[in-house]
Design a protein that fits this description.
Blueprint lengths: L7 H10 L33 E6 H5 L2 H9 L4 H14 L3 H4 E8 L3 H4 L2 E7 L4 H14 L4 E6 L2 E6 L7 E6 L2 E6 L2 H9 L10 H10 L5 E6 L2 H8 L10 E9 L4 E9 L2 H19 L2 H5 L3 H4 L3 E5 L2 E8 L1 H19 L1
Length: 336
């Protein structure tokens, strides 16, 4: 089985994020698709969000790579005890009942701990989850209390530094916010559709690459990051990247695509040339050849099209199974 590193306090926070069932029900104004956004989750995010990552756990769990990891990995006895206690007391299994996760954060998330985690799943019982979370919190010397924001019930942690709070929009959707984002999202969820932020850059990028993948990520590259890259000769070609999108599909083998949008056609050509140089070096690396990774790199190339650069890796089902077998062998070696 798969192994996930976490401690009991982290599990308590996941549970409390699931515990704040909204007093008034679902997300007002979010019932139908919105023509200005690629995914309705954008309607819930504060305007400061600059990176959004989505993971469809149902598809990921069906992939050969996940099955390889799950076969080799195993949970510790402490992990099993915690998960069994959560399921017994709440009816909720975090590794089965969560179907999709979306993570969003701003330019400098580390400064104030700002983030949003949106989870979609089943078997969320407010009463049982709150009771379990409060017991776990009390045993560790902190408190979880209830607050009202924009007509919604939030469950707020006593750590003023992290400013974390969780609440449910409906019986299948919950949100955990850090750095004060939870109250902001609660307010956004109750506003009329016309008043919601459009997240034009992120949403438009999401529309171009599509959001119906096993995993996808879109990001606006912060100016501070571009400045740091420009100061490093080895990464100077990446300093003109303004937006990035990554998609991963796992239904027919593996298809991974990365797309970078730059300011000019010339900068895109320079970046593509540099990436292809790195790929040539990797394909000739003795370490990678010994690991059997070389064949997976053969079909990868960076292509410049106008001011954009795309990199694609595609493995057919047979090649994907080969990668899974290789991964299984490597993981078994690390366990010895």
């Amino acid at each position: 089985m798969d192994r996930f590193p976490y401690d009991r306090r982290a599990v308590a926070w996941v549970v409390v994020a699931l515990a704040g069932l909204v007093a008034g029900g679902g997300c007002k104004g979010c019932e139908a698709p919105h023509e200005a956004v690629a995914d309705r989750v954008f309607l819930l995010l504060p305007e400061q969000a600059q990176t959004v990552v989505s993971l469809n756990l149902r598809e990921v769990r069906e992939s050969v790579l996940w099955k390889a990891v799950a076969t080799v990995g195993e949970r510790s006895s402490d992990d099993l005890t915690i998960l069994a206690a959560v399921k017994a007391r709440t009816g909720f299994d975090p590794l089965v009942d969560v179907h999709r996760l979306v993570l969003a954060f701003p330019e400098d998330a580390r400064a104030n701990g700002e983030f949003a985690l949106v989870a979609y799943g089943d078997h969320f019982d407010e009463r049982r989850l709150v009771a379990y979370a409060r017991d776990e919190a009390k045993a560790r010397g902190f408190d979880i209390h209830q607050e009202e924001h924009a007509g919604r019930r939030l469950w707020v942690g006593s750590d003023a530094r992290t400013k974390r709070a969780g609440f449910f929009l409906d019986e299948h959707t919950f949100i955990l916010g850090g750095g004060g984002w939870a109250p902001q999202i609660a307010k956004l969820a109750g506003q009329p559709r016309a008043a919601l932020p459009s997240h034009a850059e992120l949403s438009h990028l999401g529309k171009r690459v599509g959001t119906n993948h096993a995993a996808w990520a879109v990001a606006v590259v912060p100016s501070a990051t571009r400045a740091r890259l420009a100061a490093m000769p080895r990464f100077a070609a990446t300093a003109n990247i303004s937006r990035v999108a990554v998609t991963l599909d796992l239904k027919q083998g593996i298809l991974a695509t990365a797309r970078a949008e730059l300011s000019t056609k010339e900068s895109a050509q320079a970046l593509a040339a540099q990436l292809n140089d790195y790929l040539r070096e990797a394909k000739q690396s003795p370490k990678l050849l010994l690991m059997g990774i070389g064949p997976w790199l053969e079909g990868i190339a960076a292509v410049a099209q106008g001011p954009n650069v795309s990199v694609t890796m595609q493995l057919n089902p047979s090649q994907a199974q080969g990668m899974a077998d290789r991964l299984t062998a490597l993981l078994q070696l690390t366990k010895r």
